[in-house]
Amino acid sequence: MLPGNLEIKKNEDLDIKILASGNPPKTIDVFTKDLFQSEFTSQNVILDSNNTYQLRLRNIKNSFSYFAGNDRVKTDTYQINVTSPPQISGLTIEIIPPNYSRLPKVIQNDNGNLNVLKGTKINFDLTSSKLLSKATIITSDSTNKEFEVTKNSAKGSLLIKKN
Asked: Are strands 27-34 and 41-46 parallel, antiparallel or unpaired?
């Protein structure tokens, strides 16, 4: 039974595969139970031409246990642990226009939409919902800029070179 025990990110899809041998039944049930359910629920899966039962679970939100079986056979029970990626919980952007523009510095809070001139310097200060090991901004021209990370915050600057 694949994938066995696994850790996945929230909202990902998961394929469960059971390879059959001998004289397998045409169908088998896959039983799942998440943290909020008191009992397992089942989905019937049909044997394919490769002697495999396959089930795709979409947009998984919560960790769950699962196994497969019928009245004659039962697999081990496995655990899928769902993790949530960090979310930006606070964002301050300081926009420093180029000298030639004579525009004033602007501070934006919790708004990441930018429309700036070539030569603008942008300072980012963000807070995350989780501790960070690293933070990178990736621009549309594939420029990667690492931020300085302290626990659940990150700071960094970016100079706009194109319009």
From this structure: antiparallel
Under 8 Å between Cβ of 157 and 122: yes
- Same structural domain for residues 38 and 62? yes
Domain around 96? 88-159
Last residue of one domain, picked from the residues 83, 110, 133: 83
d(CA 152, CA 126): 8
Q: How far apart are CA 52 and CA 100, in angstroms?
A: 67
Give the integer Cα–Cα distance in Å for 123 and 134: 17
Residues 6+ away with beta carbon under 8 Å from 127: 88, 89, 90, 91, 152, 153
Contacts of 119 (CB under 8 A, 6+ apart): 97, 98, 100, 101, 159, 160, 161
pLDDT in tens, 6-23: 999 999 999 999 999 888
- Kindly report, residue by residue over 117-132, the tens digit of the pLDDT: 999 999 999 999 999 9
**Angle subtended at Cα 9 by Cα 31 and Cα 33, rounded to the nearest 5 degrees:** 20
